[in-house]
Amino acid sequence: MSTLKIKINNVSSLILEIKIVLFYYICMADYIRARSYDQKEERLNQIKKATEELFENFPYTEITLSTIAEKLGWSRANLYKYVTTKEEIILEIASDKMTAYFNSLLSAFPQKNNFSLEVIAEVWAGLVNAHQDYMRYVSYLNPIIETNVTVERLASFKKKYYNFAYLFRDRLSQMLNISAEKSYKIQLDVLFFASSNAVCCYKNPLVKAALDQIGIVPPKMDFYEDMKTFILMRLSWEK
């Protein structure tokens, strides 16, 4: 009888091991098939999408490679095949959002346009408002993200940034008939003001709870109107 129990236990253990192995391969099947360039790009896009969703819904400090891997249904070992830090992922997301922002600026302000300062401020503020998510990433770039990535990744990001920034700098310089140096300074001022405001406008549940606890009602902020006022003021100053 005892021998039969041992055999049954052995069979049960074997079945359990088989189930674990099958579960592992089912969960990791997509990852294993990611061999071609297109498949690897697809994996990177999955990683970025998962990280972006976490970035939108959780404090930065709670986002780790473990939470990213868990959201993907991967192991950390598989995630390490693509990245070594969460900042590398976030830098890639910021790069995508930066590209979208600058492309929208260049499209909205075509060469040799004759827009008034008021129109420029209104359109620019609207674009910044539409790209608030990028502005939030900007607020993390210099103090956090850019400190924990490889030199190669950072160089690639910076090259893309300056290519876009100088292109729009020259466009703005022509529009306002001012020097490229002044134009670039305006661009930076708008970017930094927008990134600061975007973080303030972001509804942090912890901050809200803290203010509720001390009975403070913060003044309402209108991101678009604040940006329009600031941009018009900045443009008028140079003119």
UniProtKB/TrEMBL annotation:
Q: Which organism is it from?
A: Treponema succinifaciens (strain ATCC 33096 / DSM 2489 / 6091)
For molecular function, the Gene Ontology terms on record are: DNA binding
The UniProt keyword set, sorted, is: DNA-binding
Q: Which residues form a coiled coil?
A: none
Regions recorded as binding DNA? 64-83
| Residue ranges of every copy of the HTH tetR-type domain listed in the record | 41-101
The family database entries (InterPro entries) matched by this protein are listed as: Homeodomain-like_sf, HTH_TetR, TetR_C_34
Task: Quote the protein name from its UniProt record.
Answer: Regulatory protein TetR
Pfam families, per database record = TetR_C_34 (PF17929), TetR_N (PF00440)
> Which Gene3D superfamilies does the annotation name?
Tetracycline Repressor, domain 2
